[in-house]
Amino acid sequence: MVLQRVRLALHIIGTFLTFFALAYLVPLLTAFYYGEDWRGFLYSLLATLTVGLALQFGLRTDRAIERPDGFIIVAFTWLLIPLFGTLPYMLPPVGLSFVNALFEAMSGFTTTGATILEVVEELPRSAVLWRSLTQWLGGMGVIAIFIAILPRLAVGGSQLFDREFPDPLPEKLRPRFRSTARVLWSIYAGFTAAQIALLYFLARLPLFDSICVSFSTMPTGGFTPHTESIGFYGNPVAEWIIMGFMFLAGTRFIVHYHLLRGNPRVLKGEEFRLYVIILAAAIGLLILAQGLSSYREGFFQAISIMTTTGFVTTDFAQWSSGARMLLLALMFIGACGGSTGGGMKVMRALTLIKQAGGMMTKAISPKAVVPLKLDHRPVPEAIVRDIISFVFLYILIAVLASIALGFLGLGLEEATSAVAASLGNVGPGLGGVGPASNYAWLPGAAKVILILLMWVGRLEFFAVFMIFFPRVWKA
After folding, report:
1. Predicted confidence (pLDDT) per residue in 379-420, tens digit
2. Which of 327, 415, 426, 431 has the smallest number of CB atoms closer than 10 Å to its CB?
3. Residue 244: how many CB atoms within 10 A of its CB?
4. pTM of the model
5. Residue whose C-alpha is closest to residue 114's, from 414, 344, 345, 465
6. Are 422 and 453 in contact (CB under 8 A)?
7. Is residue 216 a contact partner of residue 224, using CB atoms and an 8 Å limit?
């Protein structure tokens, strides 16, 4: 059984790598257009395609994808695709070390946005576009797009979709997961195209910059063509456009689906209302802490950090202690469930608040029956237990990883914020890993820890942890 699972996993991953290799055509053609060194992308394409074809056809199998296979395939796909994505960074003209290249690739595909690059402008334009493209592919999920286009995954695709696009309260848009994946990718691509048009025609950003920024906004990624991030442009119109799309990206995509179908009642959902309330409160507190003159920075950074996008317009690491602590809290809370944002998710916070309220009611009236409901629908106890387990693991891993980074020489502020930014796929932290700095100065061991945190944070733990559970392989 173990060998059969390994064979199926490698066969499916090989199929993914074969199609993923086509993504290198975008930066390859860009390099041709700008007269840059294109060999690195060609070699990356050939290497990925060769390995993908060897696995796809050398380990062909007709066995159906079962639930345990979903954990294995998703976990290793999200490890191998960033691993192959390091090649353009290691090869000329970029020439990064393996650890730094893997850090940048994992940060891209997991939409974290943390970087080891000290001067982004030193990269060729093709490499800058590749950084943003990795985030765009990773935002909605590299596997989700394969589910949408590959007939092989019409059966068993749900086992992969659920693991890659975890949602505290899963809800399908269509009876078939393949149709759901297509709808989600259509909305995602449509918003991206709309943002490119608005940034180019309305905000007057260069077309190349409009594409790169938009490719990083909808996946809540954070990579930009400039070291100073969005602050480089000093363009209020661009900032408000980006804020709007960051807000949309942090909203559950099912809300977008229903709105586009003419159903505004979804805006009354409890999760969406709490999302808006937390954002409004955070914006108000940041403006009060920094002064009314900094209202634009308060708006931008609150939305950017809570949606885990990580764009910056100012060095918020220099803000007051209260403002920095508030931003750190937003890193942990994160965006809505079923969005491209990271963090623990608003839905989990809402569920725990309601669970705590129910426990206090039962403490006063032990015989009372207090069902937990969200949007007037009862939440199964199994889901509540899953949420409690997830939050416990999230906090436990954050504490242990912060301690480990502390022993590697990082200060309390750097260690805590670097863990929160990596685990929640946010990007910039505080102090030495803040907006005005980067992660290049960290020791190699610290970078490896953060790479692992990005990986497990993007898949929300269980898809990764289950591969170390022997029963998954033998079931």
Report:
1. 888 888 989 999 999 999 999 999 999 999 999 999 999 999
2. 431
3. 15
4. 0.94
5. 414
6. yes
7. yes
